[in-house]
Design brief:
Distance between the termini: 61 Å
Shape: elongated
Largest sheet: 2 strands, antiparallel
Radius of gyration: 22 Å
CATH class: Mainly Alpha
Strand content: 5-15%
Helix content: 55-70%
Number of strands: 2
Mean pLDDT: 91
Order of helices and strands: HHHHEEH
Number of domains: 1
Amino acid sequence: MADDRLTDTFAALADPTRRAILARLATGEATVNELAAPFDISVQAISKHLKVLERAGLITRSRDAQWRPCRLEPAPLASASEWIDRYREVWRDRMDRLDQEIRRIRDQKGARP
């Protein structure tokens, strides 16, 4: 189930419009119309993007009378970041070993007459 949530998160983040929406929501709540304003696409298209973000758990929508604010939910982003960090460590270790091997080869070549 956690892998499915991670898949949903990365799928939602794959679209630049959805990433821009999340960046906007990081500054605070916004309505669909407010989120649509900077884009050259319809409010309906923004609503579809919001549904993808909501299914991935990246946003929530609430109702306050006629105002329906969208809000960023950071937990799925934290999970994605933790997953990426595990692999960052693997690659950092590999690069450190490669660096050591290159230094060893250089030292061997420098020691030859």
